[in-house]
Amino acid sequence: MHRKPQRQPVRILVTVLVVLGVAALSLLLGSQKGLQPQHYIQLTIDGVRAGSIYALMALGFVVVYSVTGIINFAQGEFVMLGAMICLTVNDLDLPLPPAWKMIAAILAGVLLTTIIGATMERLTIRPARRSPPVTLIIITIGVTITLRAAALLVWGADPHVLPAFTTLALEDKIFRFGGVIVQAQSLWIWATLIVTLILLYFFLERTLLGKALRACAVNRRAAQLVGINPDRMSLLSFALAAALGAIGGIVLGPVTRPIYDMGVMLGLRGFVAAIIGGLVSVPGVVVGGLLLGVVENIAAGVTDPAYKSVVSFVILIAILLFRPQGIIGGGEKPAEEA
Amino acid sequence: MTARLDVVDLRKDFEGLMAVFDVSFTVAEREIVSLIGPNGAGKTTIFNMISGILAPTGGSIAYGGHALAGLKPHAISALGLARTFQNLRLFGNMTVLENVMIGRHGKSDTNVLSTAFRLPAAGRQERAMRADAMRQLARVGLADKADADALSLPFGQQRLLEIARALATEPSLLLLDEAGSGLNRPEKDALDRLIRDIRGDGVAILLVEHDIPFVTALSDRIVVLEHGVKIAEGTPAEIRSNARVIAAYLGEDIRDLC
Amino acid sequence: MKRLRAHPNFAGVVILAVVLAVFGAIDLIRPFGLRFSDLSGRVVTIDTMIRIGILTIVVVGLNLLMGYAGQVSLGQAGFYALGAYASGVLTTLASRHGMLSGIADTWWWPWLAIIIGMLLTGLFAYLVGKPILRLKGNYLAMATLGLGMILYILAGQLSALTGGYDGLTGIPRLRIGDFALWPAQRYYFLVWGAAIAVIVVGLNIVHSRIGRALRAIHTNETAAETSGVDTEHYKVLALVISAMLASLAGSLYAHFQSAVSPSPFGFKASVELVTMAAVGGLSSIWGAPLGVAVMFVISNLLQSQLETIFHIRGGEYELIIYGLVLVLIMIFMPKGVISSLSAGRRNAGRDPEEAA
């Protein structure tokens, strides 16, 4: 549609001003609460940790969206399932030393969640793949409701416990730098993110299957013409997204006690991160996730933790309004060529 | 102010791809002007800029003295420009008649309250819109198909439907984007007659076309584009003998040019 | 939504009105000691009917917005909340803040509050709609979701105004002069009177130039624009109308519960609204009451039958089945229950009668 062309320098200037303004406001509010520099650093570190999880979740959204065009509301539930299954297996009486049991639990969590994701695609998405966006949104929401209710049934409403990876116990190892605290689990989270990104890179860039997936994401019809089966790719994307979600949930588990409805807010955060990154770009959503985590945490730190969610939604709306494509993606129909 | 279309030094740059470069031409009242050129010449891009769907990167477009830059398509429609689409954009969830009635939309001004509460004024305007739309359908020969689903019509008739919808807006300039493509010989002859008919009613017509004999028979003037640049302009006779035009079309069947 | 008749099917409206009136009368008069709920096998009570009526009002607006104008809204509960809180705050001004004591106690003040609520919500929707409606599809869905969530969170946080997460209580019942529109048997008539009026308005709009413009925008926005339809204006109009209807419903809800709190207005509520709209049939005004009724019946049936037949307690099973039913309906009846109904009639050799 018709839009007035905006000039680049003006937008950059406005962005810089907004960022500076927000930063100044944060410092002002923070000083009122008596925050010291180390508090800000702490908030930032915690923010980067949360942001890494959001990034992992966002990757799940990106994979599904770029291949199928669907926004998968159930992505948050994959995170929850990964964590829950992992801790359940870990609680079993298996004849294994604790470290091996944990590894088995992690594998079980990822594997089973992946299967659930694939099943979801096969049973609910595939029959409806030609439906309009609204229908698909409602379907994924229906699946979310079912999964969450099932989780409530199986695991109850109380929070559970997943031991920290380093100590294999409730108490995690803590590193102190100056006045700043870094939990060992945070290192696990960051390491997981990096390793996941590397593995994802190799998969998408260096393997035939991964390239097929990307081809489908770029141009579904053309991919079909060269023999790629879009239905298989759809299945693969959901399975991959489920795996990514599960990994995120498992590695987050020791930090926030897993509970049947942890997927709700995480899912929404992951989505905001995905939007910031443009819904189709991997580096974009990683940056988006990290940014969101940091901004959210600092905002909550200088005001009130209850406003954490408000921050994500305000960011969401702001991004959608001002840079939906900035963030790549694209809501505009291309003009016809002649 | 005469209802004349003035396109001056029009440019469209798609992030480095210069689709249209300094194209200028005019369409006077009651003229039939054709834009021709090989694929990728930028013809539909120009149409999109004139009708307000795409913003030009440079140059100006004015109609009847009004600058069209920055206006939304419905405002441009209100100024008297109507268009059809190369890929047919009918409203598939409506009947043939309803499609044309959309064209009458801008001519009526019932507001929400009078429709919500079924005030008489709304009913009156609705009946008038219906009658006007039927007239346009009769004009293109589709009156008997008024209650059919728009997409149930054969292709050639769907093209006529789009034209009827465009005519319903009472334009003084009609832009036809490849209205003839996909039509067989008798349909094209009928289209030729229809276009002349429309011109007879005082409407100027700007055509984008690929069928050269169709165009040379019909047009007062022809503008030739290649790769976004205007390479020739003149009467059909002039264009037919223009060396550059022939060269541009060398990839096409030369017999088409004779 | 292929063919709309020239005039809306008012016969259908009259029939519905009569049926509802009879049901309502039964509960008022109690012939032979019967209650409405007995008639329906205890599945539906007057309470349920009132809720269905209130939500029908919201969903008609949602159908206009989503089914006709084609704009997704996952935040409609936000507008619903605005209406409920407007009524709640304005009618408790006297008792809570000691403001406007003379006026806020009169019988006509709550009615005025409802109108004020609708106007404020409409204004809000207008201001918000202009920028947000430039987005399409999934992006619009997300923006509306975010909007709804922000309203929900603010409702809980701005305690001084809204009573925080505990909400407001003591909202007066509606009355006309000295005639109280309470207990529920009387309120039922008010709610359904409003719902029927809204259905009529909806049908009128759909069968008009405006409804046609909305359908055109839904199918092909560019072609609608070039044909002279100011698409931005109409999309915003659809949003404003749907917001005002939601606000009206919210106010009726507030006076029904005599209390408001944030919890019924979260994301879940918005999803339920969209679900009801989709299940009933997005592109049909009649789909609104149908969709709401179907979802309520399913929900109530699940609650009662699971206990009786399977001796299972607990909302989890109910939710699981609810989710599954949702998915199944969307897969097998994507155009909603109403299109399946008219498909049935078509097979019987009659005219396809979609949005009546």
CATH class of the largest domain in chain B: Alpha Beta
Taking strands numbered 1, 2, ... along the chain, how are they ordered across the largest sheet of chain B? 6-7-8-3-9-10
Please give the number of β-strands of chain C: 4
Q: Which strand order do you get reading across the main beta sheet of chain C?
A: 1-4
CATH topology grouping of chain C: ABC transporter involved in vitamin B12 uptake, BtuC
What kind of sheet is the major sheet of chain B? Answer: 6 strands, mixed
Task: Summarize the topology.
The complex is a heterotrimer of chains A (338), B (258) and C (356).
Chain A: H1 8-33, H2 37-68, H3 75-91, H4 98-125, H5 133-155, E1 174-177, E2 180-183, H6 184-206, H7 208-218, H8 220-225, H9 230-252, H10 262-276, H11 282-302, H12 308-322
Antiparallel strand pairs in A: 1-2
Chain B: E1 5-14, E2 17-27, E3 32-36, H1 43-50, E4 58-63, E5 66-67, H2 73-78, E6 81-83, H3 96-103, H4 112-116, H5 120-140, H6 155-167, E7 173-177, H7 185-200, E8 204-208, H8 212-218, E9 221-226, E10 229-234, H9 236-240, H10 243-248
Parallel strand pairs in B: 3-8, 3-9, 6-7, 7-8
Antiparallel strand pairs in B: 1-2, 1-4, 4-5, 9-10
Chain C: H1 10-29, H2 36-39, H3 46-68, H4 76-91, H5 93-97, H6 101-104, H7 109-132, H8 137-157, H9 159-162, E1 168-169, E2 175-176, E3 179-180, H10 184-206, H11 209-219, H12 221-226, H13 231-257, E4 259-260, H14 267-280, H15 287-310, H16 315-332, H17 337-347
Antiparallel strand pairs in C: 1-4, 2-3
Helix pairs in contact in C: 1-10, 3-10, 3-13, 3-14, 3-15, 4-7, 4-8, 4-13, 7-13, 11-13, 14-15, 15-16
